[in-house]
Design brief:
- The complex is a heterodimer of chains A (715) and B (575).
- Chain A is mostly helical.
- Chain A contains 28 helices and two strands.
- Chain A has helices at 6-9, 16-28, 34-60, 102-125, 132-151, 155-173, 180-211, 233-243, 251-267, 276-279, 285-294, 299-306, 308-312, 315-336, 342-362, 366-393, 411-425, 431-444, 450-478, 486-489, 497-512, 527-532, 553-584, 588-595, 597-604, 609-677, 679-684, 689-714, and strands spanning 69-83, 89-100.
- In chain A, strands 1-2 form a two-stranded antiparallel ribbon.
- Helices cover 71% and strands 3% of the residues of chain B.
- Chain B contains 25 helices and two strands.
- Chain B has helices at 5-22, 28-46, 48-52, 82-101, 110-129, 133-142, 144-154, 159-194, 197-205, 216-223, 228-245, 254-261, 264-274, 276-289, 291-317, 322-343, 346-377, 393-406, 413-426, 432-458, 475-493, 496-513, 516-519, 536-549, 566-574, and strands spanning 61-69, 74-80.
- The longest helix of chain B is centred in the N-terminal third of the chain and has 36 residues, at 159-194.
- The N and C termini of chain B lie far apart (61 Å).
- Classes of the chains: A mainly alpha (715), B mainly alpha (575).
């Protein structure tokens, strides 16, 4: 330990503060007064934030190549030896350990920072709700899981956080458990995520047998520890590359990368596992902001960046990531165009923006992906919290067709919301501009192939659609004429400071948050890129197939300016279009919807994907279950078990019949025959003394007569 | 000096049953109190095992040996290894909880009920402790009788059908096992009388051993000399007994009936401990006694286990009765256990034993939870419930944790077991990854049926007025459930203490079945590898590179034994 690294040394505590508070809430919360709940729950997250900030500050004070801090708190699963695919035995051990490096630094700051603001906001938003302690308990539990996820030093511990955030998401979506839609949505989120998790689990197994370890890296251990005793996947990969065991595009590496990406599509709501996120809006709005916009859904992006070494070794997987990302971006944006529920628009926008992040990763711009992750956390959290404030002001109304002209009635909400909208639309100099621009530029320059140009076109069109649907939302909500229901109109009020202050802070971050990654072409120094450089894998020079992808420097700058201008212009076009349709020409929106009827319905019904999934998977699984259940009762138990029981009984009956009629019958027959045969004798054997005497007398007389006759004859 | 700790543990419930026998039946409360005390004492006397049993030592410990039936060579021999140790602890712990849970559920023939429960307890303990095959068989069969009466007398509507089905079904398997036992017994005697090298080896291992013996450690050494076809025949003989008990697909259909009809405590014991007798049988007899046959049939067994995992989970989905649903979930979970056993790798076997304990905890708790509802509403139909979170918040919290533990949420016990099993299955050459991938589907389905059940019972508005004012958990119910919840967290967060007991037996099993497993790399001894750290990457570079270049692996210089030159090792290999 270097002197004065208190916070680094205690980075393992960062997830524990919210955990303690969560445990307190779930055990004792019901008896605690509200201010105590606030104190523990908001306070614990604040302490986490302070510790995170301190740790990152101390990490930043180290030299760039030393910015790794790894510590094993205890051995979690020591499960013995196993075979790796290469033959030798490895000793399986999953640690409970933390890894603080530039990547996890960014994540913990975003998670605790934005998380803290949302906790503060929630004290206002949830003030009137029942189950206040339960809500904050779950929220704290979420903070613990999310921080475990990003601080984990190995895949399995990351999976712990991964499942933990999924659980909290389930609990918070189903928070209003009286509502069927809410508990359905929670269950859907959990199960869809579990489908993705199977990919993650299999990826862990495969990594483990391929690399002989599931630890990410051996870097960052204290100098006292012999780091070679604690190898990581990165070390194994490097050695394997050097010795020729691993090469670019090897099937096993591609398989690991793709399986991990399956997990990422679940958690980060990408095609084909995105279906749970729109429904997740059933949860309270702060939950949507924290979990389903700013932090949890970005876990998939974090995972891909964390594993960037593997992905870089698997170009096919990279192409898949980029294609799925771009496809999801435009697909979700198209559904966002026509939604009328304010939170659903934001939900589709989140899916779409996550698509951008994967697009960035897929073209190798991992830093760009993380950059967008961060700026998106600021402005999307702000958008959700702002929409919550609107919903709060309108006594729970979420339908944008019943809003309008709220600009002056809730000014703080409206202005901060507007800033966030400019940020997401990619208007300079707001945060979203820098991150989105970097992604688009890196996509365009990702390679000479048509593939990258197509991806860029998709990205730019999506940018235009994003600007359009966001300004559609703003126009329908804050401008134009009021369509607010009469009795609701009286109660419109700006939210309390506990809600507006977080909005203002996030608004500031949505403006300045992007400046840290100002590209060189705009006269900046991309601090963000430099910060993250150490965690991005640079393959050994000898490695063929991973040549430098960037265009020659000479072409670079003019092209970059042109592309920048194109994306800004398209965004402006989207804004103009939204203005024309939703503000200037009354009724144009309805006429367009009518004219493009089938398309409108298709988008509005979300391409019928819920119905298709239900018919294809849910119902078929249920049918299969029913069929197997009947098979179990009817065939296995009925024919097999009860059948053999019945068969035994039947055999019993037959043998009883045999026994009665044949075996015993023969016995009886013998008896009968003897009885019949002895029938005449019975007349003689009467047992009466007199008749015996009579017979004797008669016999004697007969004999006497006989003898007498002979005697006479002889005489 | 001989210790009698195991006998004390074994005889405590028997003595308790005798004690209850002399207390007049009309003193119902006295019976309840006494039975609970006996259950508690039964658990307390097993606690010294923690100190006396040494984890990480090979072979059986705390041996006891007494003559019993000299004419056939059957002896009263007890002893435990790591596997039986954890199962004995599970039995005594769960036994006490099962007795406690019966306090108000049983109103009729209380005295007889507790006596039978205690007899059952003794029978199961005997099964896990016996080191004499004959004694084992006696306990194995003896335990059927109390269970038969527990289901048949204190069960619900179709109790007679279920009881007879349970009894006959398991008896069929047991008879085949008896044949196998007798065959092994005579084979051993014949082997010794032949006096070949095999006999000499046996005599050197167990000097002075009688020719006619049921001693399990002796027979384990002896049966490996059997001809393969004989091993295979004996494997099937034992298989039916164990497979029915586990139960493995397709021999599982007695389980839903027995579970549904049994009283709560009966279900808890049935799921928690009794089923483990089947998996224990595989671990104690089928695999080590018949290693060639076990290796030969392992793919088949794994395939059947995977079918059980998915099949059981799917059938769960359409159940309308809570207890039946949980019974089928047992089929699925036990599928993981048998899958782990027949993967024949150390991790999978360790995971399998751990998962048996986990299943005892989670499914035992699930049956207690159904019992809580049954006592209040006298129905187990899912459709009768809904919205119970409102009247019963504490119950909701505990039920949620138990469900999560059953569906394999990390930081709860189920996850550790499932993960270790699947990791161990994955490394099986050939179809291992395929089996693991299929089994993972079972995990998804597990989440689906458990959460769906939870949603239907706990969420939503209270639609049935009968549920509106259900009382929340009382102190006694808390006392039953909280220890299980704590155990679930403990194993999930810090499984090391339990895994410590399982490592050596698992390694020994693998060594016996698959000696090649450890010998491929002599650098690493089975039980004594480095505590932390993973030495594969260095080896990783050596093996394939050496194989590619046609050079033989320097056996002494295996990178596994020399962890330091991680990078250095790469240098020559990279040439």
């Amino acid at each position: 330990m270097m002197p004065g690294e208190y916070f680094l040394e205690h980075a393992g505590w960062i997830p524990l503060f919210p955990l303690v508070s969560a445990a307190l809430m779930l055990f004792l919360g019901r008896r605690l007064p509200k201010f105590a709940v606030n104190l523990f729950c908001v306070g614990s997250v604040f302490i986490s934030f302070v510790f995170s900030a301190g740790a990152v500050y101390q990490l930043a004070h180290r030299a760039a190549e030393d910015r790794f801090f790894q510590k094993i708190l205890f051995i979690w699963i020591p499960a013995g030896v196993y075979h790796t695919t290469a033959g030798p035995l490895a000793n399986f051990a999953a640690d409970w350990g933390i890894l603080l490096d530039p990547l996890s630094s960014v994540m913990i700051l975003v998670v605790t920072g934005v998380g803290f603001l949302i906790h503060v906001y929630s004290t206002g938003y949830m003030a009137q709700e029942g189950g206040y302690y339960r809500f904050f308990g779950y929220l704290n539990l979420f903070m613990f899981s999310m921080l475990t996820l990003v601080l984990a030093n190995n895949l399995l511990l990351m999976f712990v956080g991964w499942e933990g955030v999924g659980l909290c998401s389930y609990l918070l979506i189903s928070f209003y458990f009286h509502k069927k839609t809410a508990s359905d949505a929670g269950k859907k989120a959990f199960i869809v995520n579990r489908v993705g998790d199977t990919g993650f689990l299999l990826a862990i197994f495969l990594s483990s047998v391929t690399f002989g370890t599931i630890r990410f890296t051996s870097r960052g251990f204290e100098k006292l520890v012999d780091a070679t005793q604690y190898p990581g996947m990165l070390d194994a990969l490097n050695i394997g590359i050097a010795s020729g065991v691993f090469a670019v595009g090897m099937p096993v590496l591609t398989a690991i990368a793709l399986l991990m990406f399956v997990g990422a599509t679940g958690k980060s709501a990408q095609i084909p596992l995105y279906v749970w996120l729109p429904d997740a809006m059933e949860g309270p709005t702060p939950v949507s902001a924290l979990i389903h916009a700013a932090t949890m859904v970005t876990a998939g992006v974090y995972m891909v960046v964390r594993m960037n070494s593997l992905f870089q070794m698997a170009p096919f997987a990279m192409h898949v990531v980029a294609a799925i990302g771009a496809l999801t971006a435009i697909y979700a944006a198209s559904m966002g165009l026509v939604q009328t529920d304010i939170k659903r628009v934001l939900a589709y926008s989140t899916i779409s923006q996550l698509g951008y992040m994967f697009l960035a990763c897929g073209v190798g711009a991992f830093v760009g992906g993380v950059f967008h992750l961060m700026t998106h956390a600021f402005f999307k959290a702000l958008l959700f919290l702002g929409s919550g404030s609107v919903i709060h002001a309108l006594s729970g109304e979420q339908d944008m067709r019943k809003m309008g002209a709220l600009w002056s009635k809730i000014p703080v909400t409206a202005k901060t919301f507007f800033i966030a909208t400019l940020a997401i639309a990619g208007i300079p100099p707001f945060a979203g501009f820098f991150s989105k621009d970097e992604i688009l530029w890196k996509t365009f320059s990702g390679g000479e192939e048509v593939f990258y140009k197509v991806l860029w076109v998709v990205g730019v069109i999506t940018a235009g659609m994003t600007a359009f649907y966001m300004f559609r939302l703003v126009n329908m909500t804050f401008f134009g004429t009021s369509r607010v229901e009469h009795e609701v109109e009286h109660h419109i009020h700006e939210s309390p400071p506990s809600m507006t202050v977080p909005l203002i802070i996030l608004a500031i971050l949505s403006v300045v948050g992007g400046w840290i990654g100002k590209p060189a072409s705009l006269g900046g120094v991309n601090h963000f890129e430099r910060w993250l450089e150490p965690v991005i894998f640079s393959p050994p020079a000898a490695l063929a197939g991973l040549a430098e992808r960037a265009l020659p420097a000479a072409h670079r700058e003019p092209m970059e300016y042109i592309l920048m201008a194109v994306s800004v212009l398209i965004a402006l076009a989207g804004i103009w279009l939204a203005r024309v349709i939703y503000l200037q020409r009354e009724g144009l929106a309805d006429r367009l919807a009518e004219k493009w009827g089938p398309l409108y319905t298709l988008l509005h019904r979300k391409y019928y994907m819920d119905e298709i999934y239900d018919a294809l998977f849910v119902q078929r699984t249920k049918d299969l279950a029913t069929a197997l259940g009947m098979f179990d009762r009817g065939v296995i138990d009925g024919v097999g078990v009860n059948g053999s029981g019945a068969l035994t009984l039947a055999i019993c009956r037959i043998s009883m019949w045999w026994d009665t009629w044949i075996v015993d019958g023969l016995v009886g027959l013998t008896g009968t025959l003897v009885r019949l045969g002895s029938y005449p004798a019975r007349f003689v054997q009467t047992g009466k003394l007199q008749s015996y005497a009579l017979v004797i007398v008669l016999g004697v007389l007969l004999l006497l007569g006989y003898f007498l006759r002979h005697a006479m004859g002889m005489v | 000096m001989q210790t009698h700790l195991l006998s004390v543990i074994l005889l405590t419930p028997l003595a308790g049953a005798l004690l209850l026998l002399v207390v007049p039946g009309r003193l119902v409360t006295a019976h309840r109190i006494l039975a609970n005390l006996i259950g508690l004492v039964g658990f307390l006397v097993s606690l010294p095992l923690l100190g006396r049993f040494v984890a990480g030592e090979k072979g059986f410990q705390l041996l006891e040996d007494m003559g019993w039936i000299p004419s056939i060579g059957a002896r009263y021999t007890l002893g435990i290894d790591g596997i039986s140790f954890v199962l004995v602890m599970l039995t005594t712990g769960l036994g006490a909880i099962a007795i406690l849970s019966s306090w108000s559920a049983i109103q009729m023939r209380v005295k007889e009920y507790y006596i039978l429960l205690l007899l059952l307890q003794a029978g199961m303990l005997g099964v896990f402790m016996s080191l004499d095959f004959f004694l084992f068989y006696v306990f194995w069969e003896a335990m059927l009788v109390p269970m038969y009466f527990l289901i048949g007398v204190w069960g619900s509507d179709r109790r007679l059908y279920a009881a007879i089905k349970f009894f006959l079904y398991t008896l069929v398997g047991s008879v085949l096992m008896l044949l196998a036992v007798i065959t092994i017994y005579f084979q051993h005697a014949a082997l010794l009388q032949e006096g070949g090298p095999a006999a000499r080896e046996l005599m050197s291992l167990y000097p002075g051993g009688a020719a006619y013996t049921f001693n399990i450690p002796v027979l384990i050494e002896s049966t490996k000399f059997l001809a393969p076809h004989m091993q295979q025949l004996l494997f099937w003989g034992l298989f039916f007994a164990f497979a029915i008990k586990v139960p493995m697909f397709p021999f599982h259909t007695w389980l839903p009936d027995a579970h549904t009809e049994a009283p709560t405590a009966g279900s808890v014991i049935l799921a928690g401990v009794l089923l483990k007798m089947g998996t224990y049988g595989f671990l104690r007899f089928s695999v080590p006694m018949l290693p060639d046959a076990a290796r030969h049939y392992a793919p088949l067994m794994m395939a059947v286990s995977v079918v059980a995992i998915i099949y059981g989970a799917l059938v769960c989905m359409m159940q309308k009765d809570m207890k039946k649903l949980i019974a089928y979930s047992s089929v699925s979970h036990l599928g993981f256990c048998t899958l782990g056993i027949f993967a024949l790798t150390p991790m999978a076997i360790q995971g399998s034993i751990l998962q048996q304990i986990n299943h005892g905890i989670s499914t035992g708790a699930l049956f207690l939870i159904v019992g809580v509802l049954y006592e209040r509403r006298h129905t187990r139909q899912i459709s009768e419930f809904g919205g119970l979170s409102t009247p019963m918040p504490n119950f909701a919290a505990i039920y949620l944790i138990v469900s999560l533990s059953s569906l394999g949420m990390p930081l709860l016990n189920g996850f550790i077991g499932e993960f270790t099993i699947l990791q161990g299955v994955f490394e099986v050459p050939g179809r291992g990854p395929l089996y693991a991938a299929c089994a993972v589907v079972g995990i998804v389905l597990g989440a689906a049926y458990l959460l769906w059940l939870y949603q239907r019972v706990m969420f939503g508005p209270v639609t049935n007025p009968a549920n509106a004012n259900l009382p929340d958990l009382n102190t006694r119910e808390f006392a039953c459930l909280v220890p299980l919840v704590l155990a679930a967290f403990w194993i999930g967060i810090y499984p090391q203490p339990i895994l410590r007991y399982l490592k050596v037996p698992a390694d020994q099993l693998v060594q016996r079945v698959n000696p090649d497993y450890f010998e491929r790399h002599p650098g690493l001894v089975p039980a004594g590898g480095p505590a932390i750290g993973n030495l594969a990457p260095a080896g990783l570079t050596n093996a394939p590179a050496a194989a590619a270049s046609g050079k033989a692996l320097p056996s002494g210089a295996s990178a596994l034994a020399v962890p330091v030159p991680l990078r250095a090792a790469a240098q020559p290999a990279g040439e």
